[in-house]
Structures are given as structure tokens and as C-alpha cells.
Amino acid sequence: MRGSGVLVACVAILVSVSVTSAEGDLLPSIADTISPREWLYAGPFSVGAREGVTGVIDDARGFVPWEGLEHRSILVQGGVVRWAKSEVDSLGWVNLEYKDVLWDSLVDVWGIAGAVDVGYAYTEIESEGRRRALAVAHRPGSFLMNGRRYYGNPYGDQYMKTPVVLDEGVNRLLVTTGGYGDHRLMFKLVPAPSPIEIVGEDATLPDILEDELVDSWAGITVMNTTGSNLNDVTVTVGDGTAFQVVSIQDARMEPLSYKKFPVRIRQMRRASASDSMRLVISVTSSGFAAHDTLSMRHRKSGESFVQTFISRIDSSCQYYTVLPPQNLNPENEYSLILTLHGAGVEASRQADSYKPKDWAFVVAPTNRRRYGFDWQDWGRLDALEVLELATNSLPIDTNRIYLVGHSMGGHGTWHVGLAHPDRFAAMAPAAGWTCFQLYVPWFLQKAYWFAHPMQLGIRDMSLREDFAPNFVENLANLPVFILHGGVDDNVPTVHGRMFAKLLGQLGYEYEYKEVPEKGHWWNVDGIQCVDDPDLLDFLKARTRNPNPHRVVFKTTNLGQTNKSYWVEIDEQRKPFFESRIEARVSGRTIYVNAVNVRQFTLNLTTGLLPPGKARFVIDGKEMTQELKKDQTVTFHRTRGEFKLGKPRGDGLRKKADFYGPIKQVYFSPFTLVYGTKGDSTVTELLHQQARDEAFRWWHRANGYVDVLADTAVDDELVRRRNLVVFGGPRENYLTQEIADRLPIRVGDDHILVGDRRIDGRGLATEFIYPNPMNQERFVFVHAGSDSAGISISTAFSTVYSGAGLPDFLVFDESVKNLGWGGVLCAGFFDADWKLDERLMYLPE
């Protein structure tokens, strides 16, 4: 490291396996593990919770720190940090020793939010030629090598190694790490001996059950360690003896990437209790091959077992765990306890925290990963999908389904239960937090320092659905048992008490149990806290009423939830503003009061209201209607009042399954499409953006997605998939084809939002819109007014919980320092997918 005094780690150049790189040359792997011994580091820098904006270092191109180089930091004594040396310890960790920070004082005043920080570590690795390697990067969320961003492994998953390419000569490595106080990182490079590798530790496999043959799905993770696109990947499972031979052929893989292929597996012979069933796997492509054999867990009758399925979100293979009842009688109907795990907990471990019941199945979904999405967004969808699968495949009484969860799963219980109260007979959150903004407060975000209140208003409207306390009204017919340890130092007990207070003020049915001297998790006489006897007695005593005579339902996002029991909001007057319906049946009269509702539907079953003449009082206006058996009645608002029936006319409408915001493009199968219309540099940048998104989707969502060039998009893809598009009309042929039919248009040094023109250099936009080529599917466009704008057009990611992205944004590079303060325009399309300045931030 020139001028720094830090040793340079040298790469051994013994070639073990050669592969074809993107340029067509043979690219060998490093031969031995490389652990850079000496580093420079700087920090800590304050960062707002769930924002990640520091404005310190954005790109390592040309950046070479030296010992003593200064940066401003509000966390350290004197306000200045300097790059200092650190050496790897005996266990392989680089310790970032921040000695000049009064952590206790910060936490005393600001709480845990004051300890959220980011630090940087730098080293150089010298290579005598271009080489492949796998980076083991524990704790860093990402790192830059020669200016190219790679994803790290913040959760320490053992299977996670990032494929990288070392350039000839000096390779500059800048690692970003952060958290709540564990200021260390591990980074080393290990050989990538195989061009393609099967990552068995990340496989998703069903269990083998006694006296049954598996006919299900497996998720097989494959890593491409080469610099090439692989377009002829074949994944084969089975040996023809234990399992039928099944193949996926002509699959695609991106360079330096992971992909988790869903493959059908069919067991051919039964296994005994002592039999170890093994699944043979082979992967071939371009003359390369990888083989592995994975053991499959054998489960006895009465033990919990893993079941796999293909998710309707993205056609990926997911799993859930089932703990069957004691002495199961398939002729009986049982209750179902849907249990949501905490952060870092596998669903299989969650189910095994319960003792078998004689009255209920226990079913644990995954949240897509053990950290996943805090049971919001894709986590919530996963829970609902598993609930549907379990009730369809198990002997379940659908009026005795209970929702429970602990910690992150306790938050998920609040979130899912408030959004879908009609699915459950009772719910029981344990140690559940309220919302992000109250759990680890957001007040240190740069957005709160620099953004205009109207800018933040748009973002916070996107996030409003996540404010669980705001929707407690929805629990009018859902009893709640709240469990919390009295000295919980992970999720403070105030969260449970807050919900208890709100439910008490509303007069709703609930029970609050605070256990003195117990922390976040406890075990009493072999009984885990989630298996608390009082909690279970509360659940067992309650049965769902599918037709309550009074329903209160509040929502802000119809794409998240639009119905409760027999009341359904079809359309809003103003999207993302709060809509509320209160409906009740008295005799043969139905009273409805509706706020911010353009159209709603009442599903009037015979159990709620028998056939015959019915009287409706809608916002004070009376009307009558002869009802048939189990009739659905719709009302729409026109000229200030509601009328019976649906309005005339077609056109685009914001409806539950076609509502936005940006994240909804990922709620059903999608494809990532990069542009090839520009020069080679721009095309590679767009390709890299798409590859990064695919990597993120696999790592965060255990997901499955294809990356395609714009020239590979055909009519069938347009018909079946949402399209995430990288590049504007100058860079992407697909965007060019639809550009004139999009409400946001990108030009030279400007972006048009409808008729409003935003001028400037380095402008970028992200927006969702019905695909003009198929208005039953979405496009999500990333585009820039020039190369600088293109490079930041993926600055706002939506693939994490709490992202807070609306339907569209326009911004420039100042977001790197200001967060949402750098957003120039943002907002929502109206109920007809048109621009409305009342629903956007766009200064004059």
C-alpha cells in the first residue's frame, strides 16, 4: 500500500482451474487463502437507523487513504477521526478500536440509536495476474474492490462467499462495516477451484417421512465463479434409485453470481428410521461440472418436519415447518398455530420450541430468510402463503387459526394480524416491537436533518402501513394476548405496554401478561416462553366469528390489505392516504361510514344477513336492495355520494393487486432487464446493476430471478412477468419502445414529470407504472439523464423492509450526503394512475 506502511498481501498464482472470462481469456483461481494482515481503518461515523447515509466515502476509485488522513465525525472527542493501523488477530478478526468515543454517554442520551455507526477499513492486495477468488466477508454489508461494489455477509452465514475478480497489480479494497457496537470484521480470500459450485449449505430440502414418498421441491444453490454468462446450465437431481432423475436444462447464470434453482424431487423408495437418504446433485455448463450429495433429514411420526413449496411470489423454492399434534387422527379437525420466528431463528427451530399439542398443529413459515423482512412485505406474503398451504393440506378448522410470534415475530404478529384480522381467531405477540421508528428511533437519519417536511411526508406515507399502533382499531373482532418479559433489554417492555394501553382505550378484548424478572427469552421448567400455558389457554378458548356484525377497518395501502371480514375497499379517492370503513348490521339495516373510499364491496353471506329486502345507510344516505343468497353488493362514489353498483368505463385503476408503490413489482414473478443500446461501458454498468439486484434478491429473499438483456425480451415474457428495467430510452431498447407512453420521460440534462421539467446534470429516476405493452403487469424503470445519473439510478433499493419508496422519485447525487434531502421530486400516481401534483413533492 504505497505510502501507507501497510503490508501488501501477495497472491499465489498457481493455476488450479481455468475458466473463460467475459473477455474470452482463461482466468485462473488463486491457489491459497489470502488474509490481508495489516489494514488502515477510520471511524466511527454516525448513521441513521435503516438509512446508511454517511457522506464520507462513496467510491474507492482513486481513493488511497494514508495513516493520519482526517475526516469529520460527530461521535468522537474533538470531532475528527484519523486513519489508523490495525492487524488481524489470532482468530482472523480486524478490530476497529474506536477509543475516543463516549459510548455510554451517547446511549444514555440517544439510546441504542446513538450507537448505530459505520466504519471503513482499507487494504491492498497485489496480484501478478487476473485471478478468481471467493471473498469471506463477515459483518461487512458490502465492500469495494477496485471501485466495484460487492455484497458482504453481515449475518455471518457460513455458506456465503462472494465471487470476485482480482486485477493484475494492486487491488484496492475498501470494506464498510457498522452496527451497534461490535466493531470488527473478518475478510479473507479463498480459492475458487471450480468454475461452478453447488452450495449445499444453502439448499432448501424437504424432510423424509416414515411411510411416505417425497414428491415435492428442492432449492439448489449454484455459484458461478467465472466472469462469463452461462446460458446452458443443467441442474440434475436424483440417482434413479433413491430419487427419480429430474433435470432443469438451458438455464442461465450471470457472472460471479449465485442462483437458487427450484427442482422437482421424487422419492422412489421408502426409507426406514435408520436409513440415511441422500440426494445426488450435478450441475454442468460450458464443459464445466460440479457434483454433490446432500443428506436429507429423516423424521419419525410425531416429530416436526420440513415441507417445501414453490412460492407464487417469484417461483422460488421455500419451506415451512410443521409440528403435528400428539396422536394425530386424520379424521379430526385441529386448530392451527401459525408461529413467526425471531431475528436469526430458523423456522424449524421455531417449531421445535413448542411441545406437541393434542389439539393443534404448529406451523412455522420462514420470512424468506432467518432475518428476511421483519415479517413485512415479502415476509408477510410468505406467512399468508404458508397459511393457505397448511389449511389446504392439513385437517384444519379454519375458525380456530391462531397467529403468534416472538421478538421480530412478535412484531410480525402485530403487523400481519392488524393487516388481516379476519384470518385468525386470536393472536398472541410475545416481546414484539411496534415499528421501526419507535424500536431503534430514526431521528439521526440525514433525511430528518436536510429533507423538506413535504419530502419526508411522501416517504412517510409510503411507510405508514408499517406503523402498527395506528391500525389497532382493526382488532375489534380479534382477541389479543400480549406477553412480555418485565426486564426485556432487547425489545423494551414499553412496546407491549403501549399496545395494551391502546386496546384498553378502545375497549377491545385483550389480556396482558408481563412476567417479572424475565428478559427477552425465558424457559421455566422446560417450557419455552412461546409455549406459555396462559397464552395457549387464551388461544384455545377462542373461535373466530367469520361474520361479525360490526367491522372497523383502516388501511393506507390497498396493495398490502384491502379487506376485513365482509368489508372490502376496492378503490380509494386518494391513494396512500388513510381510508377507513366502519360497517355494522342491525336487523335488516346495514350502516356504513366511509372515509377516503371511492368504491367498496360488501360480501353479504346468509350467515350475516338472510335473503330479502335490505336497507343500506351509507354516510347517512338511505337506499334499499333486494338481496339474494350470499350476495356481493358494490357501491361507488359519484358526485359526492355513494350509489349502488360499479361505475362505467374501463381505463387504468389502482386496485389491490395493481396498486403500487415500487415494491409491489416484486410481489409477483419479475425479470430484471438491462439495456444494451448504449456503448459497452454503459451496457456493462446496467448489466452490473441488474446482477447486483439479482444477488440481493437471492441473499435477502432466498429468491429466484432471471437477468436478461433487453433484446431477449419477448411477448411471452411481457405477458407473464413484471419487468424491472435498467436504462432509459437511449440505453435500453425496451424502455425506448414504451417511453412515449410513460408519464416520466428522460432527456438530455433533464427529466420530465408529466409537463413539469426538472433540469440538471446527473439526474436519476426510479418509478413504477403499468407496462404499456401489457397493462396487467408492471414496469419498474431505473434511468438517468446522463452517465452520472445512470450510475446512481439504483441508489434507492426497495428489497428490504422499511424502504419507504413511493411510486416515483427523481434525484441527483446529493442523496449520497443528504438522503431524502437530495430527492428533487417524489410522489404517487392517483387512483387512475395519473400524475396529480397534490400527491407529489415538486418545488417550483
Q: What's the short story on this structure?
A:
The chain is mainly beta. It is 15% helix and 37% strand. The strands form 13 sheets. The protein has an 8-stranded mixed β-sheet with strand order 25-26-28-27-29-30-31-32, with helices on both faces. An 8-stranded mixed β-sheet has the order 46-45-47-52-51-53-54-55.
Task: Please describe what this structure looks like.
The protein has 844 residues and is mainly β. The protein folds into 5 domains: 9-193, Jelly Rolls (Sandwich); 194-300, Immunoglobulins (Immunoglobulin-like, Sandwich), CATH 2.60.40.10; 302-540, 3-Layer(aba) Sandwich (Rossmann fold); 550-571 and 576-644, no CATH class; 662-841, Chitobiase, domain 2. Helix content is 15%, strand content 37%. The protein has an 8-stranded mixed β-sheet with strand order 25-26-28-27-29-30-31-32, with helices on both faces. The protein has an 8-stranded mixed β-sheet with strand order 46-45-47-52-51-53-54-55. It is globular, with a radius of gyration of 28 Å. The chain starts with 8 loop residues before the first strand and ends with a strand. Mean pLDDT is 93; it is low at 1-25.
Profile the largest sheet.
Answer: 8 strands, mixed
Name the CATH class of the largest domain: Alpha Beta
Which second-level CATH architecture of the largest domain applies?
A: 3-Layer(aba) Sandwich
Q: And the CATH topology of the largest domain?
A: Rossmann fold
Number of strands: 55
Fraction of residues in H or I helices: 10-25%
- Helix count equals 14
Give the mean pLDDT.
93
**Rg for CA atoms:** 28 Å
> How would you describe the shape?
globular
Give the spatial strand order of the biggest sheet.
25-26-28-27-29-30-31-32
Summed up, the domain count is: 5
First-residue to last-residue Cα separation: 49 Å
In CATH terms, the superfamily of the largest domain is Alpha/Beta hydrolase fold, catalytic domain
